[in-house]
Amino acid sequence: MTTGWTADRIPDQHGRIAVVTGANSGLGLVTATELARHGAHVVLAVRDTGAGRQAARRIGGDVEVRELDLASLASVRAFAEKLAADHPAIDLLVNNAGAVLLGPRRTSADGFELHLATNMLGHFALTGLLLSTLAAGREPRVVSLSSITHKNAHLDFDDLMFERGYRAAAAYGRSKLATTVFGIELDRRLRAAASPIVSTLAHPGLTRTNLTPRAWEHRGRAGRVIAWLGLLATQPVERGALPQLRAATEPGVRGGQFFGPAGLRETRGRVTEARLGREAAGPAIGRRLWSAAEELTGVGYL
């Protein structure tokens, strides 16, 4: 049986600067580790710098830790400004960080529903603020982290912040649909602008990360049981990170390519090209979400 694409196929990354959000644990930690192992200078963009420093010691190699709270536009702006001052060119941005919260509705520092703020709006703003820095990079690439949950989600533009009938699982799915729409629309706009930046996407299938049990903590002991039973259906995080590593590093990847697991309805297994949900692929929805994101974040580009 073929094992398919593995991290050993990552090309030499020496001379490249990579930024990975949420790099202190889970998929982000594996992604940062592999990029550093192959020679990249990796910026660990993390909310908790203490955890980031622990991750940096674990990773070794050429890494640095910088504070970034994607749920705060002020933090996003400060991070981007300092990064661009220190690194006039970056080659790779992996928009990996995510929130999975199955408790009551919560909001960000800017008043946005927290899933949407962290998973999409923060990354939208970050990408825009780093666009010129990326354009100065060598074969620059942006990777957006989707989820299979995006295929069953729907964007309600009359209630993007889910103030009516809030359901946490649905809010997460919406945020990942928004992230997917963003990655595809980013590709369209980069192509139209003849930009050298390539926008790709990936999803990890069902993967065992630290977010999985934490999402059920509000349910107490019963929630912990549900979480750990759910872990039995997941694949290891090292395998779950392969789609985004392929999207980030494989030579010749085209803008708009979307990678995910091949097996059991894209939940596990070797890496292949994944299928977009119908709503994610629509240009009209992409344009509408882009306009909304520009208005909400105050960051306009392309």
Automatic annotation (TrEMBL):
Coiled coil: none
Residue ranges crossing the lipid bilayer per the database entry: none
Keyword ATP-binding set for record: no
Keyword Oxidoreductase attributed: yes
Signal sequence coordinates: none
InterPro entries assigned: NAD(P)-bd_dom_sf, SDR_fam
Record-linked Gene3D superfamilies: NAD(P)-binding Rossmann-like Domain (3.40.50.720)
An example Gene Ontology molecular-function term: oxidoreductase activity
UniProt entry keywords in alphabetical sequence: Oxidoreductase
Similarity annotation: Belongs to the short-chain dehydrogenases/reductases (SDR) family.
Protein name as it appears in the record: SDR family NAD(P)-dependent oxidoreductase
Organism for this UniProt entry: Streptomyces montanisoli
Lineage of the organism: Bacteria, Bacillati, Actinomycetota, Actinomycetes, Kitasatosporales
